[in-house]
Each structure stands twice: as structure tokens, then as C-alpha cells.
Design brief:
258 residues, mainly alpha, two-stranded antiparallel sheet, 13 helices
Length: 258
């Protein structure tokens, strides 16, 4: 047989070793029917398709015995194999995204001087942080007294401090969502009072958040999807409402002070 692919060609195409292909042949996982007159293996397109399936499941950590059982189950149609692979890939992607987020959180915790065990970091932060928040804050205010004050204060926080801060933030978010869904106008008294609680939460836990800084934070809530997502998950439209409430509160309170 002169057609098909040699074992060396297949190894190059699939980026595996010749030894791996020989092993797959020896255990009956991938045994090409084609042979040259000299007895050398010749792989057909169907063999390459099977190899692709094998490598896919190997990438996901399946043992070779289980892969053989999956691929030799003729009751499963090709489309069902594709659906299964799509599901497995989606699960792997979600898992890797969780791992990436965990690494980001650990980096931010280390950057801010938070002394927590790995278990405590997962327990306390959960999904609270989003990629780019610290970089965004440092870029905007890294050379300000407020940033330096935040770094000094958070450096001394432990697990109970962060648990308290997160609980307070969650409770405030619930109040914001409730006011918004109840139809409170963003420039009304209840909304502005909540906006002031929002600002005071920053003052109490991080730095002296002036009304100007609070306006900048409000701007990020509607200008940056990473920030908008946090409030949109609570209630669609909440990010814009909170932005408007913060601006209204700042105008009202600075007017009183002025």
C-alpha cells in the first residue's frame, strides 16, 4: 500500500512521538490497517481522526483504557461525541478560569499585604475581586495620599477584617438593589443616603474618599464593563442608577458644605 501517512508523518502532524504511536498500536488503541510491502505502518484519514479523539481525551486526563472504551462504543454517534467533547471542554475552561481568578486574587492579596492562608483567601474573597481593579485604582490614584493611606490600612488587615468588610459590602449591595427595584429615583433622598453609605464604607475601611474621588469611582461603574458587571448581576440597570445616585449625593453634600 503506497497511500496514507507514515508513522513519522503522523507523529509530526499530531505532535506526538513515534514511540507513543507504537504504544497505541501495541495496546490496540490505534492500530492502522495499512501496511507497506515492507510491513511499515500506513495511517489513513480515519486513523488520524481517531488519533485526534485519543489526544483530546488524554488532554482531559482520561486513562487510555477508558478512552478505548469510549471510542469503541459504537452506540455513540459522532455528533454525540462532539457534544460530549464540547461539554468537557466547557467544564475545563470554567475550571481554568476559576484557577486564573484564584491566582489573581492571591496576587492582589499579596500586593496589599494581606496575610491569609490559601484556604482563607478562597473563603474570604470568593468572586468579589475582578481582574484589573487594583491596576485601575493604582493607575488613577497611585501617586495620591488616598492610595498610600489605603495601602497602609489594608496591610494590617487579617481574615476577620476582610470578612467584615465583605459582609458590609454585600449588605449594602442588597440595599442598593432593593431601592433600585422599588423604583427609588437616583436623585431622591433614599438613593443619595445609600450613596453616602457607599462612600462612608470606603472611608471607614480604606481611605478618605472625597466626593471627587467618589465621582471617579462612579464613572468607572458605567465606563468599565468589569465594574459594571458587579452591579448588573444584582439588577440590570443598577450600575447606572448607582452612578447617578453618587453624583447626585456629591452635588447635594458639597452644596451643603459650600
Amino acid at each position: 500500500m503506497s497511500g496514507g501517512y507514515s508513522v513519522g508523518q503522523v507523529a509530526g502532524i499530531a505532535r506526538v512521538t513515534v514511540r507513543t504511536l507504537h504504544h497505541y498500536d501495541e495496546i490496540g488503541l490505534l492500530s492502522p490497517e495499512g501496511r507497506t510491502r515492507a510491513g511499515y505502518r500506513r495511517y489513513r484519514d480515519a486513523d488520524l481522526d481517531r488519533l485526534q479523539q485519543i489526544l483530546f481525551y488524554r488532554e482531559l486526563g482520561f486513562p487510555l483504557e477508558e478512552i478505548a472504551a469510549i471510542l469503541d462504543d459504537h452506540s455513540v454517534s459522532p455528533s454525540e461525541h462532539l457534544r460530549r467533547q464540547h461539554r468537557l471542554l466547557s467544564e475545563r475552561i470554567a475550571h481554568l478560569q476559576e484557577l486564573a481568578a484564584a491566582v489573581e486574587h492571591a496576587m492582589e492579596a499579596q500586593k496589599m499585604g494581606i496575610q491569609l492562608t490559601p484556604e482563607e483567601k478562597f473563603e474570604v474573597f470568593g468572586d468579589a475581586y475582578r481582574e484589573g481593579w487594583e491596576a485601575e485604582a493604582e493607575q488613577r490614584w497611585g501617586d495620591t495620599a488616598a492610595w498610600a493611606q489605603s495601602q497602609r490600612r489594608t496591610a494590617g488587615y487579617g481574615k476577620t477584617d476582610w470578612q467584615r468588610i465583605k459582609a458590609e459590602a454585600d449588605a449594602l449591595n442588597d440595599r442598593l438593589a432593593a431601592a433600585f427595584t422599588a423604583g427609588e429615583p437616583a436623585d431622591g433622598g433614599p438613593a443619595m443616603d445609600l450613596a453616602e453609605v457607599h462612600r462612608q464604607h470606603i472611608v471607614d475601611n480604606f481611605y478618605d474618599c472625597t466626593f471627587e474621588i467618589h465621582r471617579c469611582i462612579a464613572g468607572m461603574y458605567v465606563a468599565d464593563p468589569r465594574f459594571t458587571e458587579v452591579y448588573e448581576q444584582l439588577a440590570p440597570g443598577l450600575a447606572r442608577w448607582l452612578h447617578d445616585a453618587i453624583l447626585a449625593n456629591a452635588a447635594f453634600r458639597t452644596g451643603e458644605q459650600g
